[in-house]
Design goal:
The chain is an alpha/beta fold. The protein has one domain: 3-Layer(aba) Sandwich (Rossmann fold), CATH 3.40.50.720. The protein has eight helices and seven strands, in the order H-E-H-E-H-E-H-E-H-E-H-E-H-H-E. The chain binds nicotinamide-adenine-dinucleotide (NAD) and magnesium ion.
Length: 299
Protein backbone atom coordinates (compact mmCIF):
# COMPACT_ATOMS: atom_id res chain seq x y z
CA UNK A 1 0.00 0.00 0.00
CA UNK A 2 1.23 3.47 -0.81
CA UNK A 3 1.06 5.53 2.37
CA UNK A 4 3.32 7.44 4.74
CA UNK A 5 3.51 4.70 7.37
CA UNK A 6 4.68 1.55 5.60
CA UNK A 7 8.43 1.48 4.95
CA UNK A 8 8.89 1.54 1.21
CA UNK A 9 11.11 2.76 -1.61
CA UNK A 10 10.15 6.39 -2.32
CA UNK A 11 11.29 6.10 -5.94
CA UNK A 12 8.70 3.39 -6.55
CA UNK A 13 5.70 4.98 -4.83
CA UNK A 14 2.74 6.02 -6.98
CA UNK A 15 4.12 4.35 -10.11
CA UNK A 16 0.49 3.78 -11.16
CA UNK A 17 -0.26 7.51 -10.97
CA UNK A 18 2.14 8.93 -13.55
CA UNK A 19 0.29 11.75 -15.30
CA UNK A 20 -0.70 11.41 -18.93
CA UNK A 21 -1.04 14.18 -21.51
CA UNK A 22 -4.30 15.92 -20.68
CA UNK A 23 -5.84 19.37 -20.58
CA UNK A 24 -8.52 20.56 -18.15
CA UNK A 25 -10.48 23.74 -18.88
CA UNK A 26 -10.88 26.53 -16.30
CA UNK A 27 -9.30 25.99 -12.88
CA UNK A 28 -9.66 22.20 -13.35
CA UNK A 29 -11.14 19.83 -10.79
CA UNK A 30 -10.07 16.69 -9.00
CA UNK A 31 -13.28 15.12 -10.25
CA UNK A 32 -12.02 15.52 -13.83
CA UNK A 33 -8.48 14.47 -12.89
CA UNK A 34 -9.80 11.29 -11.24
CA UNK A 35 -11.42 10.15 -14.49
CA UNK A 36 -7.95 9.65 -15.89
CA UNK A 37 -5.07 9.57 -13.40
CA UNK A 38 -6.43 10.22 -9.90
CA UNK A 39 -4.45 12.10 -7.24
CA UNK A 40 -3.97 10.79 -3.69
CA UNK A 41 -5.09 13.20 -0.95
CA UNK A 42 -4.69 10.67 1.85
CA UNK A 43 -8.38 9.79 1.81
CA UNK A 44 -7.62 6.13 2.55
CA UNK A 45 -4.35 6.55 4.41
CA UNK A 46 -3.91 9.68 6.59
CA UNK A 47 -4.00 8.84 10.30
CA UNK A 48 -4.43 11.63 12.82
CA UNK A 49 -3.01 11.64 16.33
CA UNK A 50 -4.65 14.67 17.94
CA UNK A 51 -1.93 17.13 16.99
CA UNK A 52 -4.42 19.92 16.13
CA UNK A 53 -7.09 19.13 18.69
CA UNK A 54 -9.58 22.00 19.03
CA UNK A 55 -7.86 24.20 16.47
CA UNK A 56 -9.69 26.24 13.82
CA UNK A 57 -8.19 26.47 10.36
CA UNK A 58 -8.81 28.44 7.19
CA UNK A 59 -7.39 26.84 4.02
CA UNK A 60 -7.69 28.62 0.67
CA UNK A 61 -7.91 26.29 -2.30
CA UNK A 62 -8.96 23.49 0.08
CA UNK A 63 -11.28 21.86 -2.44
CA UNK A 64 -8.61 20.04 -4.43
CA UNK A 65 -4.93 19.21 -4.73
CA UNK A 66 -2.56 20.13 -1.92
CA UNK A 67 -5.18 22.16 0.00
CA UNK A 68 -7.58 19.21 -0.01
CA UNK A 69 -4.93 16.88 1.40
CA UNK A 70 -4.17 19.47 4.10
CA UNK A 71 -7.88 19.83 4.92
CA UNK A 72 -8.30 16.06 5.36
CA UNK A 73 -5.18 15.82 7.53
CA UNK A 74 -6.12 18.83 9.70
CA UNK A 75 -9.61 17.41 10.32
CA UNK A 76 -8.17 14.00 11.26
CA UNK A 77 -5.78 15.79 13.64
CA UNK A 78 -8.80 17.31 15.38
CA UNK A 79 -9.22 20.74 13.76
CA UNK A 80 -12.38 22.36 12.43
CA UNK A 81 -11.72 23.52 8.89
CA UNK A 82 -13.05 26.22 6.55
CA UNK A 83 -12.08 25.90 2.89
CA UNK A 84 -12.19 28.58 0.18
CA UNK A 85 -12.63 27.76 -3.52
CA UNK A 86 -14.13 29.04 -6.78
CA UNK A 87 -17.90 28.52 -7.26
CA UNK A 88 -17.20 26.20 -10.23
CA UNK A 89 -15.38 23.82 -7.83
CA UNK A 90 -18.39 23.19 -5.57
CA UNK A 91 -18.44 19.42 -6.24
CA UNK A 92 -14.79 18.99 -5.28
CA UNK A 93 -15.43 21.14 -2.21
CA UNK A 94 -18.47 19.09 -1.17
CA UNK A 95 -16.38 15.90 -1.30
CA UNK A 96 -13.69 17.37 0.96
CA UNK A 97 -16.25 18.94 3.33
CA UNK A 98 -17.82 15.50 3.70
CA UNK A 99 -14.42 13.98 4.57
CA UNK A 100 -13.89 16.73 7.18
CA UNK A 101 -17.29 15.92 8.72
CA UNK A 102 -16.58 12.18 8.54
CA UNK A 103 -13.57 12.92 10.75
CA UNK A 104 -16.02 14.34 13.32
CA UNK A 105 -15.05 17.97 12.71
CA UNK A 106 -16.88 21.06 11.55
CA UNK A 107 -16.39 21.84 7.85
CA UNK A 108 -17.32 25.17 6.30
CA UNK A 109 -17.31 25.87 2.55
CA UNK A 110 -16.74 29.42 1.30
CA UNK A 111 -17.13 29.88 -2.48
CA UNK A 112 -15.94 33.01 -4.27
CA UNK A 113 -13.15 34.77 -6.11
CA UNK A 114 -10.05 35.65 -4.10
CA UNK A 115 -9.00 38.22 -6.70
CA UNK A 116 -11.67 40.37 -5.03
CA UNK A 117 -10.20 42.03 -1.91
CA UNK A 118 -13.58 42.32 -0.20
CA UNK A 119 -14.31 38.61 -0.64
CA UNK A 120 -10.81 37.67 0.53
CA UNK A 121 -11.32 39.65 3.75
CA UNK A 122 -14.81 38.19 4.19
CA UNK A 123 -13.41 34.63 4.17
CA UNK A 124 -11.70 35.46 7.46
CA UNK A 125 -14.85 37.00 8.98
CA UNK A 126 -16.95 34.01 7.87
CA UNK A 127 -14.44 31.54 9.31
CA UNK A 128 -14.30 33.35 12.65
CA UNK A 129 -18.09 33.49 12.80
CA UNK A 130 -18.75 29.89 11.69
CA UNK A 131 -15.92 28.19 13.59
CA UNK A 132 -15.91 30.51 16.60
CA UNK A 133 -12.32 31.65 16.07
CA UNK A 134 -9.23 31.17 13.94
CA UNK A 135 -5.72 29.93 14.75
CA UNK A 136 -4.33 28.41 11.54
CA UNK A 137 -4.26 30.21 8.18
CA UNK A 138 -3.05 28.34 5.08
CA UNK A 139 -2.63 30.69 2.11
CA UNK A 140 -2.68 28.05 -0.61
CA UNK A 141 -5.03 29.09 -3.45
CA UNK A 142 -3.06 29.64 -6.61
CA UNK A 143 -3.19 30.40 -10.31
CA UNK A 144 -0.59 29.10 -12.77
CA UNK A 145 -0.77 29.42 -16.55
CA UNK A 146 2.29 28.73 -18.66
CA UNK A 147 3.26 31.42 -21.20
CA UNK A 148 6.40 30.72 -23.21
CA UNK A 149 7.29 34.30 -24.25
CA UNK A 150 6.99 37.53 -22.25
CA UNK A 151 5.78 39.20 -25.45
CA UNK A 152 2.65 37.02 -25.19
CA UNK A 153 2.17 37.48 -21.43
CA UNK A 154 -0.87 39.76 -21.15
CA UNK A 155 -1.20 42.45 -18.50
CA UNK A 156 -4.42 40.70 -17.47
CA UNK A 157 -2.72 37.34 -16.88
CA UNK A 158 0.11 38.99 -14.96
CA UNK A 159 -2.39 40.93 -12.85
CA UNK A 160 -4.69 37.97 -12.14
CA UNK A 161 -1.76 35.76 -11.14
CA UNK A 162 -0.50 38.37 -8.69
CA UNK A 163 -4.01 39.04 -7.36
CA UNK A 164 -4.71 35.35 -6.72
CA UNK A 165 -1.32 34.30 -5.38
CA UNK A 166 0.18 37.38 -3.73
CA UNK A 167 -2.54 39.98 -3.05
CA UNK A 168 -5.04 37.45 -1.65
CA UNK A 169 -2.31 36.20 0.70
CA UNK A 170 -1.80 39.79 1.88
CA UNK A 171 -5.53 40.55 2.20
CA UNK A 172 -6.28 37.35 4.14
CA UNK A 173 -3.25 37.59 6.40
CA UNK A 174 -3.97 41.23 7.23
CA UNK A 175 -7.60 40.41 8.08
CA UNK A 176 -6.63 37.32 10.08
CA UNK A 177 -3.88 38.69 12.33
CA UNK A 178 -6.21 40.59 14.72
CA UNK A 179 -7.96 37.26 15.42
CA UNK A 180 -4.82 35.16 15.95
CA UNK A 181 -3.89 34.37 19.55
CA UNK A 182 -0.32 33.45 20.57
CA UNK A 183 0.32 29.88 19.38
CA UNK A 184 -1.36 30.50 16.03
CA UNK A 185 0.31 29.67 12.72
CA UNK A 186 0.30 31.07 9.20
CA UNK A 187 1.57 28.90 6.34
CA UNK A 188 2.06 30.15 2.77
CA UNK A 189 2.27 27.74 -0.14
CA UNK A 190 5.22 28.88 -2.20
CA UNK A 191 6.98 26.70 -4.82
CA UNK A 192 10.28 25.41 -6.16
CA UNK A 193 9.57 28.18 -8.70
CA UNK A 194 10.45 30.78 -6.04
CA UNK A 195 14.03 29.45 -6.16
CA UNK A 196 14.36 28.04 -9.69
CA UNK A 197 11.95 29.82 -12.04
CA UNK A 198 11.06 28.03 -15.28
CA UNK A 199 11.29 30.14 -18.44
CA UNK A 200 7.59 29.61 -19.24
CA UNK A 201 6.40 30.54 -15.71
CA UNK A 202 8.19 33.82 -14.97
CA UNK A 203 5.07 35.68 -13.74
CA UNK A 204 3.90 32.75 -11.58
CA UNK A 205 7.41 32.21 -10.22
CA UNK A 206 7.58 35.89 -9.23
CA UNK A 207 4.36 35.54 -7.21
CA UNK A 208 5.78 32.50 -5.44
CA UNK A 209 8.98 34.38 -4.59
CA UNK A 210 6.72 37.10 -3.20
CA UNK A 211 4.71 34.83 -0.88
CA UNK A 212 7.89 33.06 0.23
CA UNK A 213 9.49 36.39 1.10
CA UNK A 214 6.27 37.61 2.75
CA UNK A 215 6.38 34.54 5.00
CA UNK A 216 9.94 35.34 6.06
CA UNK A 217 9.30 39.04 6.67
CA UNK A 218 6.04 38.45 8.51
CA UNK A 219 7.70 35.72 10.55
CA UNK A 220 10.02 38.37 11.97
CA UNK A 221 7.20 40.84 12.47
CA UNK A 222 4.70 38.45 14.09
CA UNK A 223 6.99 36.18 16.13
CA UNK A 224 7.00 38.63 19.09
CA UNK A 225 3.19 38.26 19.12
CA UNK A 226 3.57 34.47 19.35
CA UNK A 227 2.34 33.92 15.79
CA UNK A 228 4.64 31.72 13.70
CA UNK A 229 4.78 32.19 9.92
CA UNK A 230 6.37 29.59 7.63
CA UNK A 231 6.12 28.38 4.04
CA UNK A 232 5.95 25.09 2.17
CA UNK A 233 7.61 24.85 -1.25
CA UNK A 234 6.20 21.97 -3.30
CA UNK A 235 7.88 20.55 -6.38
CA UNK A 236 5.85 18.91 -9.17
CA UNK A 237 2.66 17.64 -7.50
CA UNK A 238 -0.16 15.95 -9.39
CA UNK A 239 -3.11 18.35 -8.97
CA UNK A 240 -5.69 19.95 -11.32
CA UNK A 241 -3.61 23.15 -11.53
CA UNK A 242 -1.01 21.38 -13.69
CA UNK A 243 -3.18 20.00 -16.53
CA UNK A 244 -5.41 23.13 -16.35
CA UNK A 245 -2.73 25.15 -18.17
CA UNK A 246 -0.08 25.08 -15.45
CA UNK A 247 2.21 23.12 -17.76
CA UNK A 248 2.04 22.30 -21.47
CA UNK A 249 0.05 19.03 -21.76
CA UNK A 250 2.89 17.19 -23.50
CA UNK A 251 5.27 18.07 -20.63
CA UNK A 252 3.08 16.36 -18.00
CA UNK A 253 4.24 12.73 -18.27
CA UNK A 254 7.94 13.59 -17.81
CA UNK A 255 7.72 16.61 -15.48
CA UNK A 256 8.49 14.51 -12.39
CA UNK A 257 11.72 13.12 -13.83
CA UNK A 258 13.70 16.26 -12.95
CA UNK A 259 13.47 15.39 -9.22
CA UNK A 260 16.00 13.18 -7.39
CA UNK A 261 13.23 10.62 -6.88
CA UNK A 262 12.41 10.77 -10.58
CA UNK A 263 8.64 11.01 -10.20
CA UNK A 264 5.72 13.34 -9.49
CA UNK A 265 4.62 13.91 -5.91
CA UNK A 266 1.08 13.43 -4.64
CA UNK A 267 -0.90 15.90 -2.48
CA UNK A 268 -0.92 13.32 0.34
CA UNK A 269 2.86 13.65 0.56
CA UNK A 270 2.53 17.38 1.33
CA UNK A 271 -0.02 17.23 4.15
CA UNK A 272 2.40 16.18 6.94
CA UNK A 273 4.53 19.29 6.32
CA UNK A 274 1.49 21.54 6.83
CA UNK A 275 0.47 19.58 9.95
CA UNK A 276 3.98 19.97 11.38
CA UNK A 277 4.10 23.73 10.73
CA UNK A 278 0.60 24.27 12.19
CA UNK A 279 1.10 22.21 15.33
CA UNK A 280 3.01 22.95 18.51
CA UNK A 281 5.59 20.40 17.37
CA UNK A 282 7.16 23.17 15.30
CA UNK A 283 7.13 25.75 18.13
CA UNK A 284 10.77 26.78 17.39
CA UNK A 285 10.39 26.79 13.57
CA UNK A 286 9.88 30.34 12.34
CA UNK A 287 10.33 31.89 8.88
CA UNK A 288 11.30 28.53 7.42
CA UNK A 289 10.57 27.19 3.95
CA UNK A 290 9.97 23.45 4.03
CA UNK A 291 10.82 22.00 0.62
CA UNK A 292 8.68 19.02 -0.34
CA UNK A 293 9.83 18.48 -3.89
CA UNK A 294 11.26 15.01 -4.36
CA UNK A 295 14.74 16.51 -4.24
CA UNK A 296 15.70 19.50 -6.37
CA UNK A 297 18.65 21.86 -5.90
CA UNK A 298 17.63 24.86 -3.75
CA UNK A 299 19.75 27.50 -2.00
P1 LIG B 1 -5.33 23.04 -7.20
O1 LIG B 1 -5.84 23.53 -8.50
O2 LIG B 1 -5.89 21.80 -6.67
O3 LIG B 1 -5.51 24.14 -6.09
C1 LIG B 1 -5.49 25.51 -6.34
C2 LIG B 1 -6.78 26.07 -5.80
O4 LIG B 1 -6.70 27.48 -5.82
C3 LIG B 1 -8.01 25.73 -6.62
O5 LIG B 1 -8.60 24.54 -6.17
C4 LIG B 1 -8.93 26.90 -6.36
O6 LIG B 1 -9.88 26.57 -5.39
C5 LIG B 1 -8.01 27.95 -5.79
N1 LIG B 1 -8.13 29.19 -6.54
C6 LIG B 1 -7.49 29.53 -7.67
N2 LIG B 1 -7.89 30.76 -8.05
C7 LIG B 1 -8.81 31.17 -7.15
C8 LIG B 1 -9.58 32.34 -7.00
N3 LIG B 1 -9.49 33.38 -7.87
N4 LIG B 1 -10.44 32.43 -5.97
C9 LIG B 1 -10.55 31.40 -5.08
N5 LIG B 1 -9.82 30.28 -5.16
C10 LIG B 1 -8.96 30.17 -6.18
O7 LIG B 1 -3.75 22.94 -7.36
P2 LIG B 1 -2.57 22.77 -6.29
O8 LIG B 1 -1.40 22.39 -7.10
O9 LIG B 1 -2.96 21.95 -5.15
O10 LIG B 1 -2.32 24.26 -5.82
C11 LIG B 1 -2.22 24.64 -4.47
C12 LIG B 1 -1.03 25.58 -4.31
O11 LIG B 1 0.16 24.85 -4.52
C13 LIG B 1 -1.00 26.73 -5.30
O12 LIG B 1 -0.65 27.92 -4.61
C14 LIG B 1 0.10 26.35 -6.25
O13 LIG B 1 0.70 27.48 -6.83
C15 LIG B 1 1.03 25.62 -5.32
N6 LIG B 1 2.02 24.74 -5.94
C16 LIG B 1 1.59 23.68 -6.68
C17 LIG B 1 2.55 22.86 -7.27
C18 LIG B 1 2.14 21.67 -8.10
O14 LIG B 1 3.01 21.09 -8.74
N7 LIG B 1 0.89 21.28 -8.14
C19 LIG B 1 3.90 23.13 -7.10
C20 LIG B 1 4.29 24.22 -6.33
C21 LIG B 1 3.32 25.02 -5.75
MG1 LIG C 1 -9.69 23.09 -7.16
Amino acid sequence: MTDQYTMQDPTKMYADRTPDEQYLPGAGTDEELAQNVPADHGEDSYRGSGRLQGRKALITGGDSGIGAAVAIAYAREGADVAIVYLPEEQEDADRILQLIRDAGQKGVGIAGDLKDAEFARETVATTVRELGGLDIVVNNAGKQQHVEDIVDLTDEEFDETFKTNAYATFWITKAAVPHLAPGSAIINTTSIQAYAPSPHLVHYAATKATVNNLAKGLAAQLAPKGIRVNAVAPGPIWTPLQPAGGQPSDALPEAGEQTYLGRWGQPAELAPAYVFLASGESSYVVGETLHVDGGMPTP
